[in-house]
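pasting for the record
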Amino acid sequence: MGVDLLPKKILENYEVHEWKHACAILKNDFSNEWKDITDLLNQFQFCKSWVTVGGGRKSRVSEAIDGYLYQRGWVEKEFSTSVRVDDQIMNSPTHKVDCYKNKVALEIEWNNKDPFFDRDLNNFRLLFELRAISVGVIITRADHLQDIFDELGRGSSYGASTTHMAKLLPRIEGGSGGGCPILVFGITQSLYSEEC
């Protein structure tokens, strides 16, 4: 079971890790969201032009993933949370989730500074404890994509202190996501296309 619930094509094209039965929960309890995510991953292609052309505020990878999910009813979501002790209410703000639908939160971390993983995992932990989400998903890059960035002369823009799988896994394995079931996908070289 576990990641074996994913279609073979996804397992062949992504580095996949899960914690606390995230795949089983998604597939059985959130089948529509599971389908959205698997459909997204099955059609995703990583374009050379997304690396060679400088970016702005949001990467082309994030735009492609967000855009696909937004067309299927996912939204960027900020939660209004607070803690109440007797009559005193203290706001407990969370960070916006990139893509949210029906208690499933999905974050895209593409070439951000690696502490963004801490923010995402803490957010997943808190929102799970508050019963606002049931599963957290992160899409990032597999470490070996650095070879492509180096070949294209963009390696320094995708440095060791940016978001990639080697920076994410120790954080999750160290418990940063708390009790939240988590599923992560690393985009690999097999998805890379020089044609777009």
